Amino acid sequence: MNDDLKRYSRQILFAPIGEAGQERLRASRVLLCGCGALGTVIAETLTRAGVGHLRIVDRDFVDLSNLQRQVLFDELDVEERLPKVIAASQKLKAINHQVTLEPIVADIDHTNILEFARGVDLILDGTDNFEIRFLINDASLETGIPWIYAGCLGSHGQFMTIFPNQSACLRCLMDQVPDPGTTQTCDTAGILGPTVSILASFQCVEALKILTGHADEIEPMLTIIDIWQTTFRRMSLADLRDRADCPACQHGERLWLSGRAGSQTTVLCGRNAVQVSPSERKTLDLDQLAERLATAGEIQANPFLLRFRLTNSETELTIFRDGRAIVQGTDDAAVAKGLYARYVGN
Amino acid sequence: MDFQVKMFARARDLADADSVTVALSGSCTIADLRRALSEQYPALQPVMTNLLIAVDNQYATDEMPIAPQAEIACFPPVSGG
User: Fold this and answer.
1) Domain count along chain B
2) What does the mean pLDDT of chain A come to?
3) Which of A118, A277, A332, B29 has CA 20 to 30 A from A264's CA?
4) Which of A151, A154, A148, A160 is nearest to A194 (CA)?
């Protein structure tokens, strides 16, 4: 065995991979969108497994509340407020120098996603909101690059692999991004570390199948797991693409990639604040939102808006019934969008 | 006709039950089931629009009719990560 391959001997012994599969893995390039909970587990697993080139894009800094589940970060990263992709690459470099790492600190949006996806064989979803997943879905359909979705929250999660223009896409499954305020987020409902590592590990298994030449072993399924209830269910999406008459994968609509959908941000000059507006006006149930946010900070509400101050922070979100929010305490549009996704939802 | 509907993840939390019984009269499609679930279990409304419904482990679209003995299961999309 080639010296470079020795470190992978146990993986090569696994018959479906073998030396040929390992070589294919080494020749492959992956885009990882997001380097948080799912993202750090994916990055570590693929780096140890010996993927050739790993491009990681994330807009955020390491925060103390990340350490419970984001496996590549430590207290020093928090102290230094390092960008997540930078802190992650430092650890990954020490784990496997053979992998070419390309950390990029950026907010993924419709203007840059095709550039990030250029030349990769696979896109992995390590993000935390549906708006960006619909953008990834559009980019995948446009480029023909497969992608692997996973979402997790509390003790449950789900994942599916999308082969664009062959299997059902995210939009076949859901015609629209769930309304702002109706989905829970990890910042309001919590998350267990094992939920993340199990879901991310399943994404990595799917990735290994695709990158070592076993894509045909992936079934068109949405898999739904609850680790607290210990339940595991699979829902077949076999003929969904034919049945769904999907605007994106059957009719070529690219709402997110064209920038027609997706939340818009405006920096409010001199106010240290950013306004985030969903592209379609929605009506929020502010009472329901207030109830959800009560565990994460201080709430003040009137019939028109809800003011939410994060616990131990100077950051304040003023959320309007039409879905707009003004994020006070930052002039960075990416930070404001992150807070909006985290606390208001998608 | 009564249908047993199994609840998973947040749908289970909102319904506060592993499964619920839904009474349908007249036509029995997935769209009818959604309407009946909303009416009979208002707690599920926050997840209803995007609720994924499986019939005998197959993704079910709104126009699909439900057979009397079918196993029905509900999963809301999960956003976090």
Assistant:
1) 1
2) 92
3) A118
4) A154
